[in-house]
């Protein structure tokens, strides 16, 4: 299922749909600032974004990857991405990035809710993990508000903590989600 195309997910303030090659310029313009790249490893060139979008379609066709572009209402360009990876033999994970102008608006929570519904209800995944840089306090707080919980990370052999944190979320965890404010969207 979903091997030929992804559904459109409609949320308050935005639509999530499969990224298109036409999204590459806006994604390149919006997701390559230092505030974003310090916590993610997006492509750095326009060509890189175009290749990433083509790669995401091929991986979706193989049933291993589901990438949604976030397109706010009144906008015809993508301003962020939420992706789910289902690698063979490994736990499914998700990742997300939004253009900084949309941080703190409630857009992420609305879109994340819709993607979690898709992951649990449509894909039937039991759990999603997320890897964050240990210094990514904002990403961690955003996950905690959705109900995600930090997984204790094993320590390196010299006793130092790893520089990543790992967060898991299950359908049951979502009962803990912090209710969203309703009027913060642009
Ligand atoms: C992660 C991301 C999508 C979250 O979207 P967002 O709109 O910023 O998230 P929210 O505003 O809903 O939640 C962030 C929370 O962190 C809090 N916060 C901000 N900076 C913080 C910090 N340094 N430490 C702890 N909490 C912090 C905010 O106050 C907010 O909580 P509040 O709503 O109770 O005030 C977005 O910040 C982003 O694209 N970041 C860069 C990419 C990234 O880090 N991706 C995660 C790795 S996969």
Features:
186 residues, alpha+beta, Aminopeptidase, five-stranded antiparallel beta sheet, three-stranded antiparallel beta sheet, 5 helices, 28% helix, globular, binds coenzyme A
Which CATH C-level class is it? Alpha Beta
How many helix segments?
5
Identify the strand order in the major beta sheet: 1-2-3-4-5
Broad structural category? alpha+beta
If you consult CATH, what is the topology? Aminopeptidase
Domains counted in the coordinates: how many? 1
CATH architecture: 3-Layer(aba) Sandwich
Give the overall shape, derived from the CA principal axes.
Answer: globular
Strand residues, percent: 15-25%
Distance between the termini: 34 Å
- Helix percent band: 25-40%
Radius of gyration: 16 Å
Low-confidence stretches: none
How many β strands by DSSP? 8
The CATH fourth-level homologous superfamily: Gcn5-related N-acetyltransferase (GNAT)
Describe it for me?
- The termini are far apart.
- Helix 1 (24-30) crosses helix 3 (46-61).
- This protein has five helices and eight strands, in the order ββαααβββαβαββ.
- The mean pLDDT is 92.
- It has a single domain (9-176), classed as Gcn5-related N-acetyltransferase (GNAT) (Aminopeptidase, 3-Layer(aba) Sandwich), CATH 3.40.630.
- The chain has helices spanning 24-30, 34-37, 46-61, 107-122, 137-146; strands at 9-11, 14-17, 65-72, 80-85, 93-98, 128-133, 149-151, 164-169.
- By secondary structure, it is α+β, with helices and mostly antiparallel strands.
- A five-stranded antiparallel β-sheet has the order 1-2-3-4-5. Strands 6-8-7 form a three-stranded antiparallel β-sheet, with helices on one face.
- Bound molecules: coenzyme A (COA).
- The site of coenzyme A has 20 residues, from strand 5, helix 4, strand 6 and helix 5.
């Amino acid at each position: 299922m979903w091997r030929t195309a992804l559904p459109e997910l409609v949320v308050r303030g935005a639509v999530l749909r499969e990224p298109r090659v036409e999204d590459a310029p806006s994604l390149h313009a919006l997701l390559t600032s230092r505030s974003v790249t310090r916590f993610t490893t997006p492509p750095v060139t326009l060509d890189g974004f175009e290749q990433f979008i083509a790669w995401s379609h091929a991986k979706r066709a193989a049933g291993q990857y589901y990438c949604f572009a976030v397109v706010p209402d009144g906008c015809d360009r993508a301003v962020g991405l939420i992706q789910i990876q289902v690698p063979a033999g490994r736990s499914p994970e998700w990742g997300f990035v939004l253009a900084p102008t949309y941080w703190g608006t409630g857009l992420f929570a609305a879109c994340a809710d819709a993607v979690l519904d898709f992951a649990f209800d449509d894909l039937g995944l039991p759990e999603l993990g997320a890897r964050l840089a240990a210094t990514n306090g904002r990403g961690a707080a955003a996950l905690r508000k959705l109900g995600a919980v930090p997984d204790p990370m094993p320590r390196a052999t010299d006793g130092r903590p790893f520089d990543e944190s790992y967060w898991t979320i299950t359908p049951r965890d979502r009962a803990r989600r912090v209710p969203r404010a309703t009027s913060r969207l642009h």
